[in-house]
């Protein structure tokens, strides 16, 4: 095994045999050669195999103790030594209105509902009390971790609930937060590289790295200072985020991350306690979520049911959007949605597609969002017509 400043190189079995053979020739003569028989030869063979196994163990440990090559649990243990933790998987949550007996008090995890689209199941996360009008808003959490998609207009059925809970309201689900998968080794490694100076709490890259675990994608986090926006005053910092936690937790994360003495900008403020118990105001900008409309016209092949094809197209557009990830300051080009539309069986051609902000009146070929805006797409905001 060769080890130098460039790293290590494993020896082959032939190279190990040759080394043993050379050493033994000095003792037994130059005509000694390792053969597949004899006591000494068998000992050499066994020793060579043991050396190969040892080299492989050394190579494995060298790989796992290198920040650039460590994997899985080894990567976790290594990066945590410099306070960088892997982003854990989380479950999708949303709020849904249920109907029941006024005044009824229920417990957490006593109600299970199921999506009629994905068949994923969700349980209520907290105790509750049915209001005088016979309704209650409950937060539901998916029973499995990961990015389980839920649309606001999605319908659900009750799987298990107390008799006092009678039905699910037809009102849209709200406060939807899609879960996330466990951070991959490769993504974790990129975040580690950006956060080597994390504990110094001084650089913009370190601030970004520290806050990434509180957003579903880096596209949902922007940090601006005098270096990135020369219109800002020196000593000011603007954090814009669509975070996946509470304002209180995100404020604490900012407090733990950003160096003292900076003037934080934004329109969201939360008080946190410093080490001496004094109140500190943490300010940032929660991203403005902008509802988007998509409209398109399709030619549908003969023999296909138009309603079924168009329903499948809508679902495929949403699936594309989820993978594409439109973040802050996105430019949304209508032509991007032609690809997922054409992928659906039964679509012969796409003869037109446009987009717009829901709040605006006219559709266009593209929409540009500001640095404070993120787009929000929903099934009911996609309209499709058939081109005859």
Short description:
This protein folds into four domains: 2-64; 93-177, no CATH class; 195-286, no CATH class; 290-386, no CATH class. The strands form six sheets. Strands 3, 5, 6, 8, 9, 10 and 11 form a seven-stranded antiparallel sheet that branches. Strands 12, 13, 14, 15 and 16 form a five-stranded mixed sheet that branches. Strands 17, 19, 21 and 22 form a four-stranded mixed sheet that branches.
Low-confidence runs of at least 5 consecutive residues: 197-202
Question: How can the largest sheet be summarized?
Answer: 7 strands, antiparallel
- Can you count the helices? 8
Span of the ends, CA to CA: 72 Å
What is the domain total for the residues? 4
- H/E series: EEHHHEEEEEEEEEHHEEHEEEEHEHEEEE
Cα radius of gyration in angstroms: 30 Å
Give the number of DSSP strands: 22
Whole-number average pLDDT? 85
- Secondary structural class: alpha+beta
Overall 3D geometry?
extended
What share of residues are in beta strands?
25-35%
Helix content: 25-40%
Would you write up a description of this structure?
With 388 residues, the chain is an alpha+beta fold. It folds into four domains: 2-64; 93-177, no CATH class; 195-286, no CATH class; 290-386, no CATH class. Helix content is 27%, strand content 29%. It has eight helices and 22 strands. The protein has helices at residues 13-28, 39-64, 72-80, 185-194, 204-211, 247-257, 306-324, 338-342; strands at 2-4, 7-9, 93-100, 105-106, 112-115, 121-124, 128-129, 135-142, 156-160, 165-168, 174-177, 221-224, 236-241, 263-265, 268-273, 279-286, 288-300, 331-333, 347-357, 366-368, 373-376, 382-386. The strands form six sheets. Strands 3, 5, 6, 8, 9, 10 and 11 form a seven-stranded antiparallel sheet that branches. Strands 12, 13, 14, 15 and 16 form a five-stranded mixed sheet that branches. Strands 17, 19, 21 and 22 form a four-stranded mixed sheet that branches. Helix 1 (13-28) packs across helix 2 (39-64) and helix 5 (204-211) runs antiparallel to helix 6 (247-257). The longest helix is centred in the first third of the chain and has 26 residues, at 39-64. It is extended. Residues 197-202 have low confidence and may be disordered.
């Amino acid at each position: 095994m060769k080890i130098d400043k460039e790293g290590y190189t494993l020896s082959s079995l032939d190279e190990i045999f040759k080394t043993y053979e050379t050493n033994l020739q000095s003792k037994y003569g130059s005509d000694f050669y390792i053969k597949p028989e004899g006591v000494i030869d068998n000992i050499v063979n066994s020793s060579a195999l043991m050396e190969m196994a040892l080299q492989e163990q050394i190579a494995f440990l060298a790989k796992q103790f290198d920040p650039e090559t460590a994997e899985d649990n080894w990567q976790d243990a290594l990066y945590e030594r410099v306070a960088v933790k892997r982003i854990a998987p989380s479950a999708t949550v949303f709020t849904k209105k249920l109907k029941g007996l006024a005044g009824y008090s229920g417990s957490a995890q006593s109600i299970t509902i199921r999506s009629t689209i994905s068949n994923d199941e969700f349980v209520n996360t907290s105790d509750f009390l049915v209001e005088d009008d016979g309704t209650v808003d409950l937060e539901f959490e998916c029973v499995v971790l990961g990015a389980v998609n839920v649309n606001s207009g999605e319908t659900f059925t009750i799987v298990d609930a107390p008799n006092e809970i009678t039905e699910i309201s037809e009102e849209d689900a709200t406060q939807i937060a899609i879960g996330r998968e466990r951070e991959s080794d490769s993504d974790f490694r990129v975040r580690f590289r950006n956060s080597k100076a994390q504990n110094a709490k001084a650089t913009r890259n370190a601030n970004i790295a520290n806050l990434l675990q509180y957003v579903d994608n880096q596209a949902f986090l922007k940090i601006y200072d005098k270096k990135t926006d020369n219109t800002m005053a020196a000593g000011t910092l603007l954090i814009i985020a669509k975070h996946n936690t509470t304002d209180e937790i995100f404020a604490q994360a900012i407090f733990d991350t950003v160096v003292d003495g900076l003037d934080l900008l934004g329109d969201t403020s939360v008080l946190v306690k410093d080490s001496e118990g004094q109140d500190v105001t943490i300010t940032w900008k929660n991203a403005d979520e902008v509802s988007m409309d998509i409209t398109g016209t399709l030619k549908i092949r003969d023999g296909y049911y138009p309603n079924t094809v168009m329903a499948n197209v809508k679902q495929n557009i949403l699936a594309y959007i989820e993978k594409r990830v439109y973040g802050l300051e996105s430019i949304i080009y209508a032509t991007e949605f032609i690809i997922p539309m054409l992928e659906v069986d039964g679509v012969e051609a796409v003869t037109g597609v446009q987009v717009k902000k829901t709040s605006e009146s006219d559709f266009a070929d593209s929409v540009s969002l500001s640095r404070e805006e993120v787009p929000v797409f929903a099934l009911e905001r996609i309209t499709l017509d058939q081109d005859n």
